[in-house]
Structures are given as C-alpha cells and as structure tokens.
Design brief:
With 238 residues, this protein is of the alpha/beta class. The chain has helices spanning 2-76, 90-102, 128-134, 173-178, 200-208, 225-235, and strands at residues 79-84, 105-108, 154-164, 167-168, 185-192, 212-213, 217-220.
C-alpha cells in the first residue's frame, strides 16, 4: 500500500513539473512575442521618424534652392541709370527708349535758365549757344540739380546729349564734374541731325576723370525705338 502511494505521489510530482514547465514555456513565448512586437514597433517608429526627417530636410532644401536664384539675381544684377539733357526733345525720346529697354531709371538735366528756340539758333552769331560756343567761359551752365538719389547703387550709367559743334552740349558738363563715377560703367549716347559722336564721349571721360567709359552711340534726331533697342541689346548690360 505504501509503495502504491509513493508511485502516485511520484506521478503527481512529475505531472506538476510538466505543467509548470509548460506554463514557463508559454510565459517565455509570450514575453518573446511581446519583445519582438515591441522591437518591430520601435523599428517602425524609428523608420517613420527617419522618413519624416528626410521629408522635412528635402522640403527645406527645395525651398532654399528655390529662393537662392532670386537672391543671386538681386545681388548680381546692376541698376541702370539713364541721364540726359535734351534741348529739343530728340535726346529725351531716345533716353526714354533706353530706359524702357533696360528697366533703368531716368534723370533729366535741366538748366536753371532754359534755352529758348532763339537761344538755340546756331545760325545766329548773337544767339546764346553761338556766344557760349565762342566763349568757353560761358559754358558753365547751372543746372536745377546734379544729385541723383542713391547714386552709389547704380552700376551702369548711360549719358545722353545733343551734339553742339562736335562736342556734347555743355549743360551736361556740370553733372559730369559734380559726380564720382568710380566703379561704374559709363556709356555716352547722343543725337544729331548730321554730326557724328566724334570725340564728345572721350572729352566727357577726360572731364570726369573716373569711371569705365565705353564707346558711345550716335542716333539721328528721329531715331526709332527699334533701332535704340537693338543697340541696347548689343551692350549686354547686367
């Protein structure tokens, strides 16, 4: 009888051990499954975060690339100034064509004492321009203004004038003398019924003493807008 009880106790112990082992195995399996799931979730979360960061970085890079050309263009493109003196309106017309073609700003030189038609009659030896031509001391013509706002911001300056006796009309002189053209490209242009530009541009360059002066252009008194635009294109301004 005792032997039979002992075998029963042994069997119970073995069964209990098997059950405990199974439970432990299930717990380990569950823990392993939970660990795997957690690991997978963390990986997915990490991948999502990396993906989000990559998308944000790409968006920022694209935005910077989009803005960069505009900033470079603003920084590199020089401002154009078109300065002119016009006695009869011919030079003014050309100056306006140039300003339209370049997007430049206009600055008109006006004499304090405007020239009348009689003053401009070069066939009359006693007219104002004739007397000023004969006596260079009379050519210092006062202008309403020679000061251009923000003059330092302009990189290219085009200076227009009618030709008087093969030189630039002298009302331009005071503007040339009163301004510093250092670091600027200066391009003269003129209008004339028959005379060429001659040495008028070179004489203004000598008078200025500063600036990078380029070869100028002469236009007829009735120059067309197309002709002026073609010349402007040939300049390759910034």
């Amino acid at each position: 009888m005792k032997k039979h009880i002992s075998w029963m106790l042994l069997a119970v112990c073995i069964l209990a051990g098997v059950l405990l082992t199974g439970c432990g195995s299930n717990k380990l399996d569950n823990q392993g499954s939970e660990t795997a799931q957690n690991t997978e979730t963390e990986q997915e979360s990490s991948e999502n975060e990396n993906s989000d960061e990559a998308e944000i970085t790409a968006a920022v890079t694209e935005a910077a690339a989009t803005e960069a050309p505009a900033q470079d263009s603003t920084g590199e493109t020089g401002k154009v100034l078109v300065v002119y003196y016009s006695a009869t309106g011919s030079t003014k017309a050309v100056a306006n064509y140039i300003a339209d073609a370049t997007g430049g700003d206009l600055f008109e030189l006006e004499s304090v004492e405007p020239y009348t038609d009689e003053d401009l009659d070069w066939t009359n030896d006693d007219s104002r321009v004739s007397r000023e031509h004969d006596d260079e001391s009379l050519r210092d013509v006062d202008l309403v203004s020679t000061t251009v706002d923000n003059f330092s911001e302009y990189d290219e300056i085009l200076i227009g004038y009618p030709v008087w006796w093969a030189v630039a009309a002298w009302p331009v002189n005071q503007f040339i003398k009163n301004n510093d053209f250092t670091g600027k490209t200066v391009i003269p242009f003129c209008t004339s019924a028959s005379s060429g530009i001659g040495d008028s541009g070179k004489l203004l360059e000598e008078m200025a003493g500063t600036g990078d002066w380029q070869e100028g252009k002469r236009f007829s008194s009735n120059a067309s807008e197309e002709e002026v635009q073609d010349w402007v294109k040939s300049l390759n301004l910034n």
